[in-house]
Specification:
8 strands; 9 helices; binds adenosine monophosphate; alpha/beta
Amino acid sequence: MNIVLLGPPGGGKGTQAKRLEDRFGLKQLSTGDMLRAAVAAGTDTGKKAKAVMDAGGLVSDDIIIAMIDERLSQADCRSGAIFDGFPRTAAQAEALDRLLASRGSRLDHAIELKADEEVLVQRIAGRYSCKRCGAGYHDHFQRPKTDGVCDACGGSEFVRRDDDKPDTVRARLEAYRLQTAPILPYYERQALLTRLDGMATMDEVTGQLEALLRKPVKR
Ligand code: AMP
């Protein structure tokens, strides 16, 4: 099964993708995580992407599509993937269809987590994650059970993303509105699109996603 999670930054795509990974045996493919790893490793891709990411813009389609192509060839994606933060443009959506078709596969669901922009700025501004295992937390909405200690792995170092500052967040929301939201009709026309309320609690959204993914896919 292959799933695309769409929706503005901060709408919960990453959190939900991680939850679905274990429950459905799928691999989360986050282009944002891949780019951040490339920036941290100082690769050519990372060097090209950094300034664009810091400004809240979109990295070029060629770079993103090549990254996904390479990733899909790896063994851990054989039973399916949850695309998180990809596709973000019409060219990427069309490329994804081609990449899956060339592997004898196809997309089963495109799910939009709808969210209110002002709430997102507030949500994003307070978020951070465990440096060791990546578990996500928030200053107000999701603190670790013991302050300063990761619930998942016991780690004590946490990181905040450079592009989570309010001005950059607004630029990222605009990129979503102008370049990514217009691809929703592409999936609607193929009867693949489901819209969910990303402002519901994380557990409610997970419940709705699970119910959707457990239903047999109509082809
Ligand atoms: P994310 O973690 O998905 O919010 O992505 C962080 C940043 O990485 C975005 O603001 C973009 O600059 C870049 N990025 C991630 N995924 C893509 C993509 N599919 N296309 C273009 N840029 C991307």
